[in-house]
Amino acid sequence: MIKNILNLGDAALYCDFGNEVNKSINSQVIKYFKTIKEKKFEGINNLTPSYNKLIISYDLKKTNFKEVKNYVENINAEDSIDINSKKLEIPVCCHENFSMDIKRLEKILKLSREKILENFLNKEYFCYMTGFIAGMPFLGDLDENMRAQRLETPRVKVPKGSVALTEQFANIYTFESPGGWNILGNTPLDVFDSSKEDKPNLINPGDIVVFKEITLDQYKSYNE
Amino acid sequence: MSSNYLEIIRPGINTTFQDKGRDHLYHIGIPFSGAMDNRNYLIANKLVYNNLDSAVIEFAYQGPHIKYSGEKINCAITGDVIFSIKKKDTEIEGKCYESYQIENGDEINIISTNKSVYGYLALGGEFDLKFQWNSCSINTKANIGSNDGKKLDVGQRINLKKINSNKDIKKTNYINTKIENIRVIKGTNFDYFSEEGKKIFYEKEFTVSKLSDRMGMRLEGPKIDNIVNTNIKSEGLIKGVIQVPADGNPIIMLSDHGTIGGYPKIGVVASVDYDRLVQMSPGSKIKFKEINLSDAETLFKLYEMETQNLLSQI
Q: What is the pTM of this model?
């Protein structure tokens, strides 16, 4: 359930479902997201579900904080949510050409490169949400000993396809973009395709993802 | 093939098609996009008898040099822009907020924006553009929108589907005002920052960094010290959010921003000041001033009324 509703600026509601990150809280967020999305409240122009928050932004020309808050407080989020989860294997190359932050991770985690890869690869991760940039999946949870903070100053350009870690999560940069996660490898797979307007994202909330290592040669020939 | 078209002689450095933007896509990671300075976008369209949500050419700093071929058409440029219009035997210095009639062979040369960032070129008609999710706005990071999601390029030809029949010349006396302070509403992580840090945020000057674009504006200045945690669990963002990463330098989210972020939010720019914020060029000084939600709502209402007034007088 929503624990608290605040304003985020003058054109968005900040719905707080708690501070923990787990599937149960995340499912609550998704329930509210789906219910509000269905109802199409006049003036609401975007919904952003995340681990344990839901941001509802609205057009200040059409409505305001009080109206949207009142509306959200009186919603009964549907119990049945339909997450058509699928299991996906994502190829990743961790050659030194790509693993830009491996040295940093070795230092922070106090683990060898081999151990870091062994801990990361071939395990099932749950997709909590997508976003930041188009189609980027937020996957969890990494093992306790694999958790590192973001870079102090985010990079201005992270290469497309970068597979990166922060705290208990992994993600994939679907485009070159700024970003502050620790880069471990790169996938040759297109994780976002804007030509599919109905389903542009390869990975969706609720899906299970497993990273499989490929060599540099396999990477190079992947899209041939 | 259309007989009315533009040819790009020089694209400028950041030239894209923009319209009202696209909504209901944050949850898959696609931002609003759309014209950065909404008021100037609307005025440009109104000056040439377009629907207010029509596509225009947005440029930043150096603009495009364009050659037009086809039947007579009106054009108008808004913002604070230096440009000229070259006709057969004469070249005239252009004035913003005035429409001009151009004809076959005429050229529009947009030299640059003046102490500002964005300018808009509207043509009285409709460009032949691809729409994605109901908008032709170009998002160059995700390659979404018209022109394959890429900036306009040299030698490119852009067709017009339609030319407006009304070709009377219009003008308005709008002046882009600069404001001393950018008004902000307290962010959801305001208390993550030290007392000293909060004071710095409201009392000191910040400088707009060169590393600013349609996604975000990076600021430089005194560091804002975080005493709780320099990371939060990633959560949704909206345009205007001011995040402070561990290095203590604020970043303001702009129209092509990432939809999710994990740095603490110290504040959010009030909607009323967004159009003026985006026009602050690298090197400009910014000072933030706190306002509450209800004042922000009232000020936006007044700003919106002023915009509607301006439009109704054109």
A: 0.91
